[in-house]
């Protein structure tokens, strides 16, 4: 709605998408040769915007747009969710590649290289910079492979398997970034400071 529709030309073009849905609606305004100061009221589904129109051939605004902070925040959240989904997909693909490599090469244990199908692997949950790449057992020992680039302290093992006195005999191999426990564990935590991850035998 404009206060002087005679001296100001106002059009509302609508840009449609290929599916017929509305993509963007905008207002095109141009003054006549004898235009005077006028007021334009722009009504949207969110707010009402009063705009003062001043005819000035030397100083004028080519485009004026409105940005809704909550809409921008929602778009940022959607982009962040998409980024996290892509990262999760990359991690899943990397884990699948590691599993395929294990199946081909086998896994080194205290009994030599053992085919992956002869081992039992664990489910690892939680977030920490020492979160193992994999944990597996040959049913006599438990092998915990820490990230190869991890340079922090060795996390402690909190056994929740039950039926034991809680004593854990383990050794750390810095060349392999691997912790070897002298028996099979079924449920335990790796803890360091306030960080921890849970490890449970699969199946």
Q: How would you characterize the overall build of this protein?
A:
With 203 residues, this protein is an alpha+beta fold. The protein has one helix at residues 69-105, and strands spanning 8-11, 14-16, 22-25, 28-31, 38-43, 48-53, 107-109, 112-114, 120-125, 134-137, 142-145, 156-159, 170-173, 178-181, 187-192, 195-201. The chain folds into three domains: 8-62, no CATH class; 67-105; 112-201, Immunoglobulin-like (Sandwich). 18% of the residues lie in helices and 35% in strands. Strands 12-15-16-9-10-11-14-13 form an eight-stranded antiparallel β-sheet, with no helix packed on it. The chain has a two-stranded antiparallel sheet with strand order 1-4. β2 and β3 form a beta hairpin. The longest helix is centred in the middle third of the chain and has 37 residues, at 69-105.
Write the CATH fold name of the largest domain.
Immunoglobulin-like
Order of helices and strands: EEEEEEHEEEEEEEEEE
How many strands appear in the DSSP assignment?
16
**Which percent range describes the beta-strand content?**
35-45%
Residue runs with pLDDT of under 50 for 5 or more positions = none
Which percent range fits the helix content? Answer: 10-25%
Roughly what is the average pLDDT, rounded to an integer? Answer: 82
Task: Chart the SSEs and their pairings.
Layout: E1 8-11, E2 14-16, E3 22-25, E4 28-31, E5 38-43, E6 48-53, H1 69-105, E7 107-109, E8 112-114, E9 120-125, E10 134-137, E11 142-145, E12 156-159, E13 170-173, E14 178-181, E15 187-192, E16 195-201
Antiparallel strand pairs: 1-4, 2-3, 5-6, 7-8, 9-10, 9-16, 10-11, 11-14, 12-15, 13-14, 15-16
InterPro entries: Conjugal_tfr_TrbG/VirB9/CagX, VirB9/CagX/TrbG_C_sf
Protein name: Conjugal transfer protein
Organism: Yoonia vestfoldensis
């Amino acid at each position: 709605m404009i206060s002087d529709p005679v001296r100001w030309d106002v059009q509302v073009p609508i840009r449609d998408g290929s599916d017929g849905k509305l993509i963007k609606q905008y207002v095109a305004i141009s003054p006549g040769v004898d235009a005077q100061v006028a007021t334009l009221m722009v009504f949207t589904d969110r707010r009402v915007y009063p705009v003062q129109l001043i005819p000035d051939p030397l100083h004028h605004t080519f485009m004026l747009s409105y940005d809704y902070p909550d809409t921008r925040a929602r778009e940022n959240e959607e982009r962040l969710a998409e980024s996290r989904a892509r990262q999760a997909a990359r991690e899943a693909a990397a884990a699948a590649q590691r599993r395929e490599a294990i199946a081909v090469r086998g896994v080194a244990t205290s009994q030599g290289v053992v085919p992956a199908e002869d081992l039992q692997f664990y489910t690892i949950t939680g977030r920490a910079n020492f979160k193992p790449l994999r944990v597996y057992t040959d049913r006599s020992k438990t092998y915990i492979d820490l990230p190869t680039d991890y340079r922090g302290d060795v996390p402690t093992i909190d056994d929740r398997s039950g039926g034991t006195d809680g004593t854990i005999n383990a050794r750390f191999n810095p060349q392999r970034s691997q912790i070897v426990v002298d028996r099979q564990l079924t449920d335990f935590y790796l803890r360091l400071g306030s960080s921890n991850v849970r490890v449970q035998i699969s199946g």
